[in-house]
Amino acid sequence: MVFFSFFDVKRFFGEKILFWGAAFISFLIVAVFCVGAMVKILGYVSNARLIFSAQKTLIQAELDAKQASVRRGISHAEMLWANERQASVSSSALPKFGEAKDYIYIKDEPSFFEVFAKADVDNHSVEYFDDYIRFSERLAKIATGDVSATKSPLHSYHYTPDGSYMAFMPPSVENIELIEREKIPQLMQKFSLDLGDLSDPEVRKAWKESRATKWLLPGEGLLLEDQVIRLVQPAFDGDEVFMVYASDLAVDRLKANLQRSDFDGTFFVVSNDGQILLQSTGDKTNDAEMAAMAQILKKTKAWQLPGPNSKVHYSRGLFTVSQPLGDTEWFAVYAYTVKTMGRADHAARAGACGHAQGAGFQGAGIDADAPLV
């Protein structure tokens, strides 16, 4: 029979108490550490929403200003067309068509925008274009005043649906020789835009009722040599389209807004089908990380995930918050990672309590659907 002395029992329970006491204290330390780290994560997530809101506001303001400018241009164009067709005096620039064959430069006053007009004089008389020339003259005056008031640069052109007349306002210095030399059918191939069959009454009705501006994906500029976003909208005379108006917005102008701001992650503008139209990274994110974020973003299509605006989603190691950009059918997305947080000195120790991330994300309103990779 084995007998335990009082000291043996004391030693046994003492060791147990020390072990479990140490374990409990360690647990408390880890718990406090994790709670502190999670608080920092939630603080960074909240701050990221503010960063996103600020960046999105800058981009949205630029897009809204451009769209408003185009719509003002359409409104002025429709008003001018109605008035100019009733005028009895021909344009003083009309005889110049006979001198230059198929193009003229129009500038009534030194302070007004110059207009370069091109016409199909092979199939129409010079007099046929009188209304169009007077229209372009008056539109240049109004556009000059609009640009002076808004301080926003203008690179635009307009053309008739039948392709017989086209005018650039102001003409591009880089491409002026090209548009002087080429015939209008070749220019129409380069500059005309797909708005559907404008000879179809139903297509015209849809455009007139919506008064929508079509946003084209960024591409090489024809008026500017930089990447541009092109906006286009038809102008109506009653139920007929008499002119199509297009205006370019330089992508660099949008990038300049982002570069003036300080943020840690990467800001994207994406189309609904996943094309990345614009991206700008903060000082704490390098190009390789931005490329990795872009790849994950394309795979997850986070901007299409359900939820209220500004909801943070978490997938494959990437946090994202997104909102649509006005009438463009594009989305603003701000993306960042746990690594981004660490570099920003927010939740640098979050990896130590990774097992608690999922529950913490859900509690913070973050949609987590995959582990960190």
Automatic annotation (TrEMBL):
Organism domain of life: Bacteria
The entry's keywords: Membrane, Transmembrane, Transmembrane helix
Q: Does the keyword Transmembrane helix apply?
A: yes
Give TM regions. Answer: 17-39
- Name of this protein: Cache domain-containing protein
Q: Which organism is it from?
A: Comamonas kerstersii
